[in-house]
Amino acid sequence: MAQRIPVVAGNWKMNFDHLEATYFIQKLAWLLRDAHFDFKGTEIVIMPSFTSIRSVQVLIEAEKMRIGVGAQTVSETSDGAFTGDISAQMLARLGCKYVIIGHSERRKYHPEDDANIVDKVRAVLAADMNPILCVGESFEERKQGIELEYAVNQVHDVMRDLSDKEAQRMLIAYEPIWAVGTGMVATPQSAQDAANAIRDYFKKTYGTDVSEKVRILYGGSVNASNAQALMEGPDVDGFLVGGAALDAEEFSRIARLTSRSARRRLAHR
Ligand code: 13P
Question: For residue 250, which of 38, 57, 8 has the smallest C-alpha distance?
């Protein structure tokens, strides 16, 4: 079985200007170092606003911090007359490793839909970064009991034309919409069930080799009180954290709990 390095990614959404962002990163790096954090065993990623990425990148490089940087969305086109858009190439040049695609807030407030999500995924892969594709049901689908099918179909809609090589570079974030920013978290069992259904989709479509490599995160009201229980599901490979990623101490606690769970997982293999 492949060993998957868990990811704890902080999606800052539209919070923090570049000064607040660099202050936060310094504090986070200090907290993690002080706790002798195992940076090799768990990846830490911060996704700031576009305006802060450069400042964060310069700081991380100068101080040799082992914190990754990502973006919250991207244009599906490479360049040209697209006022206000940011291309994958621009993000890659800034050292971004990950880009969130299809977040429920972007599906709701911006025209990020299944058609352009596919193109965004391709743009990110072509620029040598890793997409974090967000999927997950609303209350409606959950009430009907079709949440697993719904999430898997969302994955399938995007993945259907991707090769094995591209597929294994994907990260999937299962983020049930009703859990995002509400304080209502999925139970560890339902996070595991969704992660397992998504992994099973990868296994059937691309085979065990790919499915064992793909990292599947949970997102939606994650905090330091629920992270450890959520990590008990063997298919949950870390988190996409929103609100709790705006507090350096809380975020570092989530990172440490994830790292501890990952070590325990390794010991039981
Ligand atoms: P919250 O952690 O605030 O619920 O947000 C989750 C999220 O949307 C991460 O992308």
Answer: 8
DSSP 164-201: HHHHTT-EEEE--GGGTTTS----HHHHHHHHHHHHHH
149 included as an active-site residue: no
Q: Give the residues surrounding ligand 1 with Cβ less than 6 Å away.
A: 11, 103, 175, 180-181, 219-222, 240-244
Mean pLDDT computed over 31-45: 96
Tens of pLDDT, residues 82-122: 999 999 999 999 999 999 999 999 999 998 987 899 999 99
**Please, what's the b/e burial string for 5-42 (b: 16 or more CB within 10 A of its CB; e: otherwise)?**
ebbbbbbbbebbebeebbebbeebbebbeeeebeeeeb
Q: Which residues contact 263 (CB under 8 A, 6 or more apart)?
A: 38, 41
Query: What is the phi/psi pair of residue 10, to 5°?
Result: -100, 115
- Fold observed for domain 7-267: TIM Barrel (3.20.20)
Pocket test for ligand 1, best of 12, 171, 175 (most atoms within 8 A of CB): 175
Q: What are the extents of the domains in the chain?
A: 7-267
Token reading at 87? 């291309």
Q: What is the pTM of this model?
A: 0.97
- Is 20 a catalytic site residue? no
Alpha carbon dihedral 42, 48, 52, 54, in 10-degree steps, equals: 40
Ligand 1 atom with the smallest distance to the CA of 105 is 8
| CA 243 to centroid of ligand 1, rounded, Å | 6
Rounded distance between C-alpha atoms, residue 162 and residue 81, angstroms: 28
Ligand 1, atom 5: closest residue by C-alpha: 242
